Amino acid sequence: xxxxxxxxxxxxxxxxxxxxxxxxxxxxxxxxxxxxxxxxxxxxxxxxxxxxxxxxxxxxxxxxxxxxxxxxxxxxxxxxxxxxxxxxxxxxxxxxxxxxxxxxxxxxxxxxxxxxxxxxxxxxxxxxxxxxxxxxxxxxxxxxxxxxxxxxxxxxxxxxxxxxxxxxxxxxxxxxxxxxxxxxxxxxxxxxxxxxxxxxxxxxxxxxxxxxxxxxxxxxxxxxxxxxxxxxxxxxxxxxxxxxxxxxxxxxxxxxxxxxxxxxxxxxxxxxxxxxxxxxxxxxxxxxxxxxxxxxxxxxxxxxxxxxxxxxxxxxxxxxxxxxxxxxxxxxxxxxxxxxxxxxxxxxxxxxxxxxxxxxxxxxxxxxxxxxxxxxxxxxxxxxxxxxxxxxxxxxxxxxxxxxxxxxxxxxxxxxxxxxxxxxxxxxxxxxxxxxxxxxxxxxxxxxxxxxxxxxxxxxxxxxxxxxxxxxxxxxxxxxxxxxxxxxxxxxxxxxxxxxxxxxxxxxxxxxxxxxxxxxxxxxxxxxxxxxxxxxxxxxxxxxxxxxxxxxxxxxxxxxxxxxxxxxxxxxxxxxxxxxxxxxxxxxxxxx
Length: 592
Ligand code: ADP
Ligand code: SF4
Ligand code: SF4
Description:
The protein is α/β, with parallel strands linked by helices. It contains 22 helices and 27 strands.
């Protein structure tokens, strides 16, 4: 069995432990060089030839910096390894013309590495990291007889034009400046500017400066800028973040139209309903985050997502999760008699150009209420009113509540380590409760030493959720807590929020657009409808069946259940099922 040793340099702190791993390694005790001190980094270097996998170093290391991993037998040589005791990746996805290929996998499992290779930024070393120089020729030969041979040949001769929609679109205004309409005109190589602007509903944004538009608008501008360019291979990294459900449907259409024109498209996406609707095929990435990643065979989209949900890849014969993810096929039963946390009367609030009207309702203790609706429809205004951060024009909230509010982005001007940020911003940082309820499940230990300004989107999201949950409150309001989290992290965050709410006899109001996550986490829901940016109307919190029907009826979409996993899947507009479900007013839950 082959074995790899991984050292997490962020965690390893030899000055604090004085190389306990080396002291206790039985190989070293027998005077072998099983672990030595690396001259350059001054950190341990483990010889994978000499290491017998006893695991003593892993147990002795006070900072969990070493992992010794037995690789699955079926794996042959890696495509790339960053170095000794560093991450390695096995296999690459297929690049298929006229198709959208979805990539599904945890964060840290190698998605960016793969894209760096496919874009030509990183020449893969085929596992031989000690080589002086990596060359394309070797890679082209390695893929002889496969479709990737031609791809790499063309790539190395600069014959492939790759278009990339980056993950963290909120960073774009740092690199691109000016008027949105002009920016889109400048990149328009295919003469379909008007259509794309219309399909992505960007008309109202064209006259604005890119530095003044919201996250959801930036996302659509970035997607528009990609599809307007004339490339060979398009790659979209998390195109759904910050978009509401109807905008997600629009981007699915626009991105899929590239494939119908014959282009090869790849999409990384963690919203399973979106990934399902956008992809023709998927590759599942599995392995161990930060240690190694394996690209599965290409699978049909339904089979691939089901395999991911079941946690078992049949063709590869690998289990990627102990349990499958379970879905509820009926709306959860609500029984909250006598546990009211707050009540409010009919509420009205107007700003210049926008008015919100909320139907009276109540929120119970120990429940999670989700709020569905478009962006710009008044969800945040409502949250601010019940937290008394805003005064309503008419109506009132009957009980004053302590509200903890997490906005869409973690706004800060902190320049320093995550640990110091948490120390000053998370009130119960350092307590056992923080450690067990929040830090451990969110894997914060992995990032404590990193600079807050250098975190990835998912890492920043985890810090932001931790800071909110560390505060005492009656009602926790989260605005899109799933953005940038992978599927596993989304479900985990759902569980953590549920647990904290339960332990504190509190409640949570969660604004999110990932239907699979909403299905997993909601006890009840409120629907916000109307005209985005002009007029919002909110229903009382009610059972999930009523609210899903109301919400989806407005959007004119229905969901069916996958026969095998029971996960919700978007029906094709006007398909037989779509028409039948609409007739029966069963937009989401089907009667037995
Ligand atoms: P994903 O995109 O799936 O989140 P990445 O490809 O970014 O995953 O990273 C996979 C692993 O490779 C991570 O543990 C990361 O720290 C490591 N890694 C990425 N780039 C480098 C590099 N240049 N040198 C060493 N390790 C790296
Ligand atoms: Fe040494 Fe055992 Fe650690 Fe290998 S697993 S480096 S043999 S202590
Ligand atoms: Fe110390 Fe762990 Fe680093 Fe070894 S790996 S030097 S035990 S922190």
